[in-house]
Design brief:
The structure holds 2 protein chains of 2 kinds. Chain A has a single domain, classed as Arc Repressor Mutant, subunit A. Chain A has helices at residues 11-19, 26-36, 45-58, 81-107; strands spanning 24-25, 61-67, 73-79. Chain A has 4 helices and 3 strands. In chain A, helix 1 (11-19) crosses helix 2. By secondary structure, chain A is an alpha+beta fold. Chain A has a 3-stranded antiparallel sheet with strand order 1-3-2. By secondary structure, chain B is of the alpha+beta class. Chain B has 4 domains: 3-55, no CATH class; 118-330, no CATH class; 334-511 and 740-870, no CATH class; 521-738, no CATH class. Helices cover 51% and strands 15% of the residues of chain B. Chain B contains 25 helices and 24 strands. Chain B starts with a helix and ends with a helix. The chains are: A alpha+beta, B alpha+beta. The A-B interface holds A 25-27, 30, 45-46, 49-54, 57-59, 63, 68-70, 72-75 and B 1, 3, 6-7, 10, 20-21, 23-25, 27-28, 30-32, 34, 40-41, 45-47, 49-55.
């Protein structure tokens, strides 16, 4: 796996996670994931925006207007209670899978 | 807010949301640029991918397909117009016929639980009397003994004279038992229905008006309840108005209870088991099937036969049965409607095949366009969807056109259906009809669109190479076009056969010699006020004679009137034979043996001559055959053949009651009194002077247009009795025309459908040949260059077209032999396999097909070998 690609299916979880402390706009989400992963993960715009649209549709995030650092009007995405719940489920699922993988790697 | 609603929200706020997303991405890109990072990517693609999350992609594609489809159709106005017209006509005729089929055959009766309503029927099967009605005694028997019916109500129709100040008016009157309308399960529009008290002897006379009668004559006046009308001699009080539902079994103007009818309430009728005047309706008990109801009826009939062998002689085969009201009401029109609907379906099929053929031809020209689109990344499903969208768009426009056509000709069809069933009034372009139109439109679009869409095996390389001859594909789509053309020929042959048979039958029916000459004869049917001209069941003979004498005398003195006479009823008017049993002198009938039966008709000395009925032997009536002279009778030829096969009937005596004997003084030619398609019935003519009746028809032969004498006839009647209306004034030709009207209209409709089909098929054949020619131009050029004669080449091309025609014809013959079997009941003395029709139609089709393929084929003779060879 190339270093800047992500495990499939985890982008949504990461987006939800970085939105947990505070609302962010699209670019900031990508930046945040990049920074927090110690520059290991690179979020493709081609994945980010469709993913955000999907989450809006599911009601996990809500969009509201705000002002960017560059002084532009832009939408900030905020986690909803449903999104919070979804994040927990996804993290729990991910943990289980990781444990499983780790167990296999250790014993085999 | 659920997922679903959010999607709808997105759909509704689409442009704003798109704008917001666009803005997000712009900001993103700017910030990327500020950080000196790589480019954002293809924003358009990104946006499309994001939209896909909204689940609206299919809508986008549909919109694109529609927009593109519309553009394509607009750019090919010729193709669009032809296809739209063909589909519009096809869908139009189907919609129109389906609206009739739905309104008449499919729609449930507008009555509560209409499926439980039944019509009861008694029959003397061995005497060929399949529906004889019920007598009062029988009605009581069935009421007492039935186990399958919850309710039974009687009905008969009479003409009463309504006198309310304006002109005297004969009104169609339904005479019904008290709970007749409750049986149907309808509610009064105004006032109330009858109660058992209304139907008691001595009760005040009451009246219920039908909705159309009330509307037409009393302008929806709600104060009609409580008004008094004089009907014949009795004053009736209006107690109710019916709702505007179609009336069964017949349309009537007013209704009255049975006690108000002097005949029905006469002691004589109440006690006569053999006077089968009434009709009987019933409602099946819940859980009872038609089958168990029929068994019940048969059982009661068998019991009656056992108890009253004199009334139900075994050799007449007495039985009783029942039918669903809905079936009964529509049985006369069902076969005709189904044949017409089937025909319309075939027309649509032809239209479909033709448009598919057109579309295929166009497809060849579009090969390159499609190849380019495929090369640019359009998937095969996307291309197929595009083509189907185009064809469905076309067929929907055709459907709209068809709907417009259908609503235009609906009135004609309703009038047509009205001759057979009162349900015709229920025909309209209703919601189910609209649905039907929508469904067949979409189905049509998908079917004819499927041919070009799936016949195309896209071969990018070949198609992109301009001018290449993708020969293998061409052959396969060519074969498909030929198959479609064969189908068109076959179907149009079947339709032509159907129309041909119907027209032949119509011509035969029209040229039937009815046994009389109706030219310039006017008939005026008069039902005398039976309260005035009869005392109970006994006609006031002097008064009746006096009335008709005054009318005929006055008419005889009218200039232009050449002859005046009287009969019981004009020939070919809708009526049933007045059949009476009789004795022949010297031929006793056994106790349980049935007596011979003949239709009795009244006549005056001049009636035979006036109507051109020939004298076979003996004499006509004379003025000497008066009331106080020996009774005489004239019989028809078939009567004579039947009962006096080997002897001279003249001088023989017959009697209706065994007491008064009438001498046969003449034999006259047979008249088809009750239908051109029915054999003449045995008829006994009785002199009007010796047996005057309250119902009679005055006939006059005139010098010019007989209808122009209607005024004089009316004046003569009013002069004799100002309170006496005329039931109907019609010329004999008019009456004859009316019996033919249904057959004529069916013939015209089938003929129109067939011509339509032929025209469509001819253009189809033309197209096939013309394509053949254009594709073989080079080959033809070579042949010509090598010395082939132009006529030879022409023959070759035409023969190739003829192959399609001959195969189509062969299939059509087989198809027609199978399909026309359903038509037999509509045909008069014409076999469904009528060889003359088959041969004639085949010739016509061959001729048309030959011309259709010859015209485009002629182009080969203009081919210049040099140009042809260089053309590729």
């Amino acid at each position: 796996m190339a270093k800047n690609e992500m495990l499939p299916g985890t982008l949504g979880m990461l987006v939800l996670r970085v939105l947990q402390p505070a609302p962010l706009h699209g670019y900031a989400i990508a930046q945040r994931i990049h920074q927090l992963s110690n520059d290991l993960l690179q979020v493709e715009e081609g994945s980010l925006y469709p993913a955000l649209q999907r989450m809006l549709l599911k009601g996990w995030v809500k969009a509201g207007w705000g002002i960017s650092e560059t002084n532009r009007k832009v939408r900030f995405y905020r986690l909803t209670p449903a999104g919070r719940k979804q994040l927990q489920t996804e993290v729990a699922d991910f943990d289980r899978v990781m444990q499983g993988i780790a167990a296999v790697l250790a014993k085999a | 807010m659920g997922d679903f609603f959010r999607r709808i929200y997105y759909l509704l706020n689409r442009s704003r949301l798109e704008h917001e997303l666009q803005n997000d991405m712009d900001v993103h890109r700017e910030m990327l640029g500020a950080d000196g990072r790589r480019d954002f990517g293809n924003p358009l693609l990104l946006q499309e991918q994001s939209h896909e999350a909204w689940g609206l992609a299919w809508l986008d594609r549909l919109r694109q397909d529609l927009r593109y489809g519309l553009r394509v159709l607009r750019k090919n106005p010729g193709y669009t117009l032809v296809a739209m017209l063909a589909l519009g006509l096809g869908i139009g005729v189907n919609t129109a016929l389906f609206s009739v089929v739905y309104g008449v055959l499919l729609k449930p009766l507008p009555y509560a639980n209409g499926g439980q309503l039944v019509v009861l029927r008694q029959a003397f099967t061995k005497a060929d009397r399949n529906n004889v009605g019920f007598s009062v005694k029988e009605i009581n028997d069935y009421r007492a003994q039935s186990r399958s019916l919850s309710q039974m109500e009687e009905y008969h129709q009479m003409g009463f004279i309504l006198l309310d100040g304006k002109e005297p008016q004969e009104v169609r009157t339904g005479v019904v038992s008290a709970h007749f309308f409750e049986l149907l399960g309808i509610k009064p529009y105004l006032g109330r229905f009858f109660t058992p008290n209304d139907d008691q002897p001595g009760a005040d006379a009451v009246l219920i008006l039908s909705y159309p009668f009330w509307k037409k004559h009393y302008g929806n006046d709600p104060d009609i309840i409580g008004r008094h009308f004089r009907m014949n001699d009795k004053i009736h009080t209006v107690v109710g108005v019916l709702p505007p539902v179609p009336q069964y079994p017949r349309e009537n103007d007013v209704y009255m209870p049975t006690v108000a009818c002097p005949f029905r309430s006469s002691q004589m009728m109440i006690e006569d088991r053999d006077d089968h005047m009434m009709r009987l309706f019933g409602r099946l008990l819940p859980g009872q099937s038609m089958e168990s109801g029929r068994k019940d009826m048969e059982l009661i009939a068998a019991r009656l036969q056992q108890s009253y062998p004199g009334n139900y002689p075994a050799e007449r085969g007495f039985t009783a049965s029942m039918d669903g009201l809905q079936t009964q009401l529509t049985k006369d029109i069902r076969p005709m409607l189904l044949v017409l609907l089937g025909t319309a379906g075939l027309v649509l099929l032809i239209a479909c095949a033709n448009v598919a053929n057109l579309a295929l031809a166009r497809m060849m020209r579009r090969e390159q366009e499609l190849a380019v689109r495929a090369a640019m990344g359009a998937s095969r499903t996307r291309l197929v969807r595009q083509l189907l969208t185009e064809s469905t768009l076309l067929s929907l426009v055709g459907g709209a056109l068809g709907l417009w056509l259908a609503s235009g000709c609906l009135e004609l069809l309703v009038t047509f259906a009205g001759r057979f069933t009162t349900r015709a009034a229920e025909v309209s372009i209703s919601l189910p009809v609209l649905l039907f139109t929508l469904v067949i439109s979409v189905a049509t679009g998908l079917i004819f669109g499927a041919f070009p869409a799936f016949s195309q095996r896209l071969n990018l390389v070949n198609s992109l190479k301009e001018g290449s001859n993708a020969s293998t594909e061409r052959t396969s789509s060519h074969r498909l076009r030929n198959v479609l053309a064969v189908g068109q020929v076959a179907i149009s042959f079947m339709l032509l056969i159907g129309a041909g048979l119907m027209i032949r039958s119509f011509i035969k029916l029209q040229s039937v010699d009815a046994g009389y000459n109706g030219e310039n004869v006017l008939s005026a049917t008069i039902s005398l006020n039976f309260s005035k001209y009869a005392h109970g069941m006994d006609a006031d003979q002097p008064a009746i004679r006096n009335f008709f004498d005054r009318v005929t005398t006055r008419l005889k003195g009218t200039p232009g009137v050449e002859a005046v006479a009287m009969v019981s009823g004009p020939p070919l008017a809708p009526a049933r034979p007045n059949e009476q049993p009789f004795f022949i002198e010297g031929r006793p009938t056994g106790k349980n043996e049935s007596r011979p039966v003949a239709d009795t008709e009244l006549a005056t000395p001049d009636s035979f001559h006036l109507m051109g009925i020939p004298l076979i032997s003996g004499r006509f009536f004379t003025t000497g055959d008066a009331a106080d002279k020996p009774i005489v009778i004239i019989i028809s030829q078939s009567f004579a053949h039947h009962y006096f096969p080997n002897e001279d009937p003249l001088g023989k005596r017959v009697s209706g009651d065994g007491k008064d004997w009438a001498t046969i003084v003449g034999v006259v030619g047979d008249v088809r009194q009750f239908g051109l398609d029915k054999e003449p019935v045995d008829t006994a003519y009785i002199p009007f002077a010796q047996s005057p009746s309250t119902a009679g028809t005055v006939i006059i032969r005139t010098a010019g247009d007989p209808m122009s004498y209607a005024k004089q006839v009316r004046e003569a009647v009013y002069a004799a009795d100002p309170e006496q209306p005329i039931s109907e004034i019609k010329t004999l030709d008019q009456l004859r025309g009316e019996t033919l009207a249904a057959t004529r209209l069916t013939s015209i409709l089938l003929g129109l459908f067939a011509m339509l089909a032929l025209a469509i098929a001819a253009t189809g054949l033309s197209g096939v040949t013309s394509l053949l020619v254009s594709q073989r131009t080079r080959e033809i050029g070579i042949r010509l260059a090598l010395g082939a004669q132009r006529s030879q080449v022409l023959r070759m091309v035409v023969m190739q077209g003829m192959r399609v025609i001959v195969i189509g014809l062969a299939i059509g013959i087989v198809g027609a032999l199978i399909a026309t079997r359903t038509m037999q009941s509509l045909l008069f003395k014409t076999a469904v396999t009528d060889p003359a029709t088959f041969a004639g139609v085949a010739l016509v089709l061959l001729a048309v097909a030959l011309v259709a393929s010859y015209i485009p084929a002629r182009r080969v003779t203009r081919v210049d070998p040099m140009i042809a060879l260089r053309s590729e």
